[in-house]
Design a protein that fits this description.
Number of domains: 1
Oligomer: single chain
Radius of gyration: 19 Å
Number of strands: 11
Amino acid sequence: LIAIAIGIYSIMSHDPLEGKEVAMPQTGIIAENASGKNVAPLEIIIPKDETDSYYIKLVNIKTDKTDMAMFIRAGESLDILVPLGSYELRYACGEKWYGEEYLFGKNTEYYKTDDTFDFTEDKKGYNGWTVELTYHADGNLNSSEIKDDDF
């Protein structure tokens, strides 16, 4: 009976993230699931003085599926091409990386942009966006905190 009680305590007190920090990925695209060609520009900037890194998902508004996932280290930028369409950015941020399953561990913060990002083509070419993920009192990009289940 004592062995069972100790075994249960051991299982219940085990933190799956404890000691599982792993090396952060390089800044870049982690996954692509879209069927269209990557043609429209997207630049995401994380300011030099930012201490958080970001795991970002480009979520298709029509399908609610992630068409692209990317990782951007603190203080770095990513300049890529994405498929045409309307998207919402969902992002998770933190300082320590525990892999794609746990992201930034217990301290992960989750957000989604309130605005839609339209990537289009016209006579002049492809239209995209530059996004700086930082707090500005007079900023023009609003984000809302979301639950991890909504990420």
